[in-house]
Amino acid sequence: MTTVTVALTDHAYPVMMEQGLRHRCGAVIAERIAPCKMAVITDENVAPLYLADVTASLEQAGFSVLPIVVAPGEGSKSFTTLATVVETMAATKFTRTDCALALGGGVIGDLTGFAAGCYLRGISFVQMPTTLLAAVDASVGGKTAVNLDAGKNLAGLFHQPQMVLCDPQCLATLNQHCIADGAAEAIKTGILGDSELFAIYESGDPSTSYEEIIARCVAYKAKIVAEDPTEHSVRKLLNLGHTIGHAVERASDFGISHGHAVAIGMAYVARAAAKRGMLSHKDAQRILHTLQRNALPVETAFDLQTLDTLTKVDKKAAGSSITVILPERIGSCRMEKLSSDDMGALILDGVQEGASA
Ligand code: NAD
User: From the DSSP assignment, how many helices (H) and strands (E) are in the chain?
Assistant: First the structure.
C-alpha cells in the first residue's frame, strides 16, 4: 500500500493506493468511518465494472449500501443530477452519520463531493477514483462543483473527503482517450513542480507504473492544498491551462473533454510565455512535443472572440481581472494578474503560428 497524507491543519486524510484495493475497501474505510448507510454514487459505465466488488466489500465490513447510478459524462455535473442524488439519500433517510462514496471519474467525484457537502449541511464522503485524471488530480483537494449554463464549475463548494482509495487495476478498462486526459493533468503537475515526472511523459518511459505517477501527482497536490486549502494563494497554480481550457470545454458544449481542453490551454500559455520572453522557446517546444506525444491536442478551432468571452465568466476571474498561470521553465510556473483586455492579448499570443485567430 502506498499512502500520501493531505495534511490540512484541521483535517488530515490519507490517499491510499494498492492493486486490488476495491476488494477490501470496506475494511479499510471501516478503520476511519463506523459502519453506516453508504450511498455509492457511480455512472452507467463504471457500475457494471466495479460496483459489485465495492458493494460486496462494503457489506462485508458492515455498511448498508445504497447504489445511485447516474448517466456518464459531463452532463451529470448538473443541478438536476445533484437533486436526484440528495433526494435519493433523503428518501432513504440518510442522517449526518451516514456517508457517500464516489466511485468513478472526476465527474462522479465532483458531483458526489457537492452532494455530500450540501446534504444536511455536510456529511462525510470517500473518493474512489477510477480514471487516471481523477486519481492524479480530481479526487484530492476537496473542490466540488456542477456546471451552469454560463460556464464550467460555476456552482460548488470546498468539502474534503475522509479518505481517497485508489485501485490502479481499475485503470485497465480505460480507453486511450481517457488515459490521455489523465496524462494532461500529470504533465501539468510536471510543468508546475516535478521535472522528473515531466521527463517520464516526455520520453514516454513505459517502465513507470501508474502507481508511481499517481503518487507523485498526489504528493505535489497534497503539499499545495495543505498550504492553501481554499485557493487564496499558491493553489491557484494548479489552474495551469485551465482558464483557456474551461473556455474550450464550454465552447465545445463539453464535446472536448477536460484533459484535452486543459492540454490546449497549456499549449496556449506555453506559446504565449515564450513569445513574451518568460519561457525559453526550447521549453515551450518540449511542452508542446510532450502533449502531442501523449495524444493530446495543442490547438483549437475556436476563435479568439469566443475564447476571450468565455474566459471572462471563468470562476478564476475576480472583478475585472483574472489570474493566469504562466510557465517559467519545466518545473516552475508563476501567477500573473491580467485585465480582461490583457487576457485577450495573451490568447492571441498563444495561437499557433500559421493558425487563424
Ligand atoms: P469522467 O468522470 O467523465 O470519466 C470519463 C469517462 O470514463 C466516463 O465515460 C466514465 O464513465 C468512464 N470511466 C470512468 N472510470 C472508468 C474505468 N475504470 N473504466 C472504463 N471507463 C471508465 O471524466 P474524468 O476525466 O475522470 O474527469 C473530468 C472531470 O473532473 C471534469 O468535470 C473536471 O472538471 C473534473 N476535475 C475536477 C477536479 C477537482 O479538483 N475537483 C480536478 C480536475 C478535474
Answer: 13, 12
